[in-house]
Design a protein that fits this description.
The chain has 217 residues and is an all-alpha fold. The protein folds into 2 domains: 47 residues, Arc Repressor Mutant, subunit A (Orthogonal Bundle); 136 residues, Tetracycline Repressor, domain 2, CATH 1.10.357. The chain is 69% helix and 0% strand. The protein contains 9 helices and no strands.
Length: 217
Amino acid sequence: MPYRRTAAVADRLERTRAAIHDAALTLVSEGGWSAVRVTAIADRAGVATGTVYRHVPDKDALCVEVFRQAADRELARVVAAAHQPGRSTERIARALRTFAERALRAPTLASALLADAAPPAVEAERRAYRQGHRDVFAQAIADGVGDGELGPCDPDIVAAALVGAMGEALLGPLAAVRADDPVPGVDELTSVCLRALPPIERAPSDEPTVPSTTASA
């Protein structure tokens, strides 16, 4: 009779796998990708090194899974912020602030997600992560154009510029900030990004008329 895994065994294996993932994510959050070593993961998870390899084929595969786990969580927060009720610019501002504040509160993890040297397999996931953010902002920008709140533009191009500007601006502060520091510069960074949104171009007839101050003859 073929062996059938019991519910108790399946539960134990799932808990072990979760412990391995949690350990790897903690190591990335504390020291970046260079801190993710199989021996360190095993020690943190309380398992043998061989147990790690029974759950993942190699370290790169585990790094990909950990990246997806962390990236999906961060992107979900930005999506939630962008989907709250309000005008398009308000939604964009909330999403920008959420992205920046969370990055500055967890600088080591944010650097790992955004730019730090990583296994080659992670780079493809990183591109998908950036695309996910671009899609969020592109939709909000398209809504703004459709509602007449923003001027005509290519939402994908503007969204890519916003995501690129945010990531680049955060890389410097991320190198110096501590997770327990107040979030610095988020207001200014958000304001700069909002000013980059295409304004409505008013026709000359739409300009307010300035009353003449010249006395009648």
